[in-house]
Amino acid sequence: MASKKGEQGSLKLPAVLDLNEATQLHGKLMSLRGKALVIDASAVERAGIQCIQVLLAGAKAWGEDKKPFSIAKVSDAFQKTLQLVGMSADQLQAQEIR
Amino acid sequence: MKKKVLTVDDSRTIRNMLLVTLNNAGFETVQAEDGVEGLEVLEEANPDVIVTDINMPRLDGFGFIEGVRRNEKYRAIPILVLTTESDAEKKNRARQAGATGWIVKPFDPTKLIDAIERVTA
Amino acid sequence: MDMNEIKEIFFQECEEQLAELESGLLKLNDGDRDPETVNAVFRAVHSIKGGAGAFGLDDLVSFAHVFETTLDCVRSNKLEPNQDVLKVMLKSADVLADLTNAARDGGSVDDSRSRALVKELEALANGEVPAPSATVEVPAAATAAAPAPTDESGFAPIPFSFDGFDDEEEAIEGTVYDVTFNPRPELFAKGNEATLLLRDLSRVGEMSIHCDTDALPSLDQIDPEGAYFRWKIAVKTTKGEDAIRSVFEFAEWDCDLEIKVQEAATDAAERAEELPMIPVPFDLSMLDGAGSEGDADGEEAGAAANATATTAVAAAEAVSGIAKLAGAASRGDKKDAGAAATAAAQATAAAGAAPTIRVDLDRVDRLINLVGELVINQAMLSQSVIENDANGTSSINMGLEELQQLTREIQDSVMAIRAQPVKPVFQRMSRIVREVADMTGKSIRLITEGENTEVDKTVIDKLAEPLTHMIRNAVDHGVETPEKRVAAGKNPEGTVRLTAKHRSGRILIELADDGAGINRERVKQKAIDNDLIAADANLTDEEIDNLIFLPGFSTADKISDISGRGVGMDVVKRSIQALGGRISISSRPGHGSVFTMSLPLTLAVLDGMVVTVAGQTLVVPLTAIVETLQPEASAIHSFGASHRLISIRNSFCPLVDVGRILNFRTTQANPVEGVALLVESEGGGQRALMVDAIQGQRQVVIKSLEANYTHVAGIAAATILGDGRVALILDVDAVVGASRGQSLKPEMSLAATG
């Protein structure tokens, strides 16, 4: 993957991250592969497990690609949902290594 | 924001009881009289949760649930089935059709609201 | 709306369901095996049971439950709905109706009857259903029901020995449960959501959680709708295991769930090491859909404002639409408006079942009353305009014509509101047939036709009683026993046919049986025995048949329990007459009898001929009049002291002096100076009613005399004419009866014929 350094993508999550959104989200992430990604989760009101699964898989993929994957703004609801299911926003981050 | 409930039941008595109970609990309520009408109003109603009877003319509860679950846009909506205590078999069929949960008839208001709260965010 | 109103709705609905149930069962009885018919029958009982449960009507629930169970056997093809089965079912439907009525009106039900039926129903259900399948259901239901009651019980028995704790400590500390929760994809597909389950779990007690994400595939491999996360959760609660289990009530089929009490010996720190547990704060109310309360409210308010504005615009448009329509109407484009209305009606019809509303009958009646007043007022206005505007060319006259037309249309439309199909009454009759046939050991089939024929609700309500009596009569006396029928070469099963149809502005109801017909010899003998006719009277077959309508007549050798009850066909006839109707019978020996009733469609208006009798204005119902004629002296023949006949086209017809009979005058009028109205009375005989002059024909609004004054013999009701005068409406049959020598006073007529 010969992506240029500094190329940056951004993704704003919708209010409802339900079953239907999981496939959408997966598609969006796939299309953003290789770019440094900043996710805006400030609008999220409802987050289901499947979207969280996709996001986590995304964070891992970006980690393997050694690209930064970060969640910039997190709504209170999203934050609390993550906490409730035993996860933290940190798990959904991938650092650019080196 | 008020949660919106779609109720599907052919009995006028039950429809009225649902309406009163749900309105008192602060829900917005849309009502249909059978499965066919339920599917018809789905788009317009765009409910947060559905409460449906099983025995209905034209399209029964099983068919209705399958219809909702096949609908790309609305398949994730939680659906509660109104059922009688003894209907273990029906409960299972409803689950196979894709029901989220059930409410045992005759329902009392707290049980109904409680079940709705359980399946909605 | 409160519970009482809903209960009222429930009973209304019960009536509909009971009708549905009965007609479905009758269809099955006729060999209909459409699964939808069986379903509809099942649904009717199920629906009654459901509603009854909500109102705690236990008797109704338990009977409906047994009935439903048996019907379910039919539905699942475990029980063949043959005639014997349906006999039980139809009887059960009757009992269900009785129980419903008892629940509403507080009456009592024949306990032994319903208990016997419960046994029969259960026998039917058990006879075909293997016993094991019935027992399987019970534990399943019990399990499902179990969690609910323990929800609030606080302390549920904990299957563990807590040597180290005393009770008090346990109550405060609670027990720690280890929960393993591994959802499967189906859980999500059915609209359940793990986050919500975890939310509810966190409310049960103090919770720590570990999410195992090891199974998560790579982004390329992941199924976005798969289920990869697994959880290990520790919940500390005083509510017991059932409280935890009930959280997963809807989900347990679609996940692997394990709940067990955490072993006291386990060192918490040790556990924490092997599995990092994140404590979950107790207050997670943010998840209750209140994410951005403020914004949402703002949006909603905006949307609401928008909606209001839209509604206002729509309303304004609607108003202008009405204004346009009104304009069109006032310009005299009545046809267009009418056409539009027709088109609208057709559009409604085309759209399938037209939407309906339920309206309190009082409101409709108030409206009908007001429209009645409007009709009278309009007539009075017309009259005074005509009187004051001799040249009759003014635009007022044209406007008045419009008004008259509109008033008439409004009246028709309003009357149509009250019109209802005769179906419910007809349906009630099938039960009567069943019961009477059962009691008399006859086999009878009731066929109904034209059930959707509509007639005013008042007429329907008052029709039930005479019709019931006639049906009883037809089954008890009309149709023969199966043995006699076979002997006569007939089908052992008798047929009673009940038909309704509209004919020239009236409703015609026919009740035909294929029984033995009237035994004229016996009827005549009975009439002679009872001094109803002279022993040497020479009567036509038709006249003999109609003797059964005379007061105090009964052909049954012994008063039977069924059609006896002390009332005869004379009572039936009087009830029909009270409705402005006529009844007659025609009979063919060996082939059966046909009763024909003709009734007005409404009791509110009447087309009448306005006549003058001895200076009084009377209205004669137009439906009674066959023709009017100007008698010539040569056609009048005296007969006896006071009887006169008029010859019309080679037949003689008794002349009835209305003025004498109503005591308007003491001397006989001269027929040549008046007009004769040829009327048809029941039994087919014609009479010529003598009146002084005809003023004209018009529709009049009926005002009950009984309600406003008292019953007057010979007078059916009153009305108000266009000029404001009160006119009496003639009771033609009573007047004709009086001319036969029967007194107009009812109590005397009973005494006379005793």
Automatic annotation (TrEMBL), chain A:
Q: Name one Pfam family in it.
A: STAS_2
Where does the MlaB-like STAS domain lie?
11-87
Q: What is this protein called?
A: STAS domain-containing protein
According to its UniProt entry, this protein's organism is Ferirhizobium litorale
Lineage, opening ranks? Bacteria, Pseudomonadati, Pseudomonadota, Alphaproteobacteria, Hyphomicrobiales
UniProtKB/TrEMBL annotation, chain B:
Question: Organism, per UniProt?
Answer: Ferirhizobium litorale
Presence of the UniProt keyword Phosphoprotein in the record: yes
Gene3D superfamilies attached to this UniProt entry: 3.40.50.2300
Domain Response regulatory: start-end pairs: 4-120
Lineage runs: Bacteria, Pseudomonadati, Pseudomonadota, Alphaproteobacteria, Hyphomicrobiales
Which UniProt keywords are present, listed alphabetically? Phosphoprotein
Q: Any one Gene Ontology biological process term?
A: phosphorelay signal transduction system
What's the protein here called? Chemotaxis response regulator CheY1
- Extract the PANTHER family matched here: CHEMOTAXIS TWO-COMPONENT RESPONSE REGULATOR, STRESS RESPONSE REGULATOR PROTEIN 1
Which InterPro entries does the protein's record reference?
Bact_response_regulator (IPR050595), CheY-like_superfamily (IPR011006), Sig_transdc_resp-reg_receiver (IPR001789)
Q: Which residues carry this modification: 4-aspartylphosphate?
A: 53
Q: Which domain of life is it from?
A: Bacteria
TrEMBL record, chain C:
Listed under GO biological process in this entry are: chemotaxis
Q: What is the lineage of its organism?
A: Bacteria, Pseudomonadati, Pseudomonadota, Alphaproteobacteria, Hyphomicrobiales
Question: Phosphohistidine: which positions carry it?
Answer: 46
Question: Record keywords: Nucleotide-binding included?
Answer: yes
Annotated ranges, domain Histidine kinase: 401-603
Protein task:
Involved in the transmission of sensory signals from the chemoreceptors to the flagellar motors. CheA is autophosphorylated; it can transfer its phosphate group to either CheB or CheY.
Q: Extract the GO molecular function terms from the UniProt entry.
A: ATP binding; phosphorelay sensor kinase activity
Q: GO cellular-component terms in the record?
A: cytoplasm
The name of this protein is: Chemotaxis protein CheA
Give the EC number(s) under which this enzyme is classified.
Answer: 2.7.13.3
Q: Which PANTHER family match?
A: CHEMOTAXIS PROTEIN CHEA, SENSOR HISTIDINE KINASE CHEA
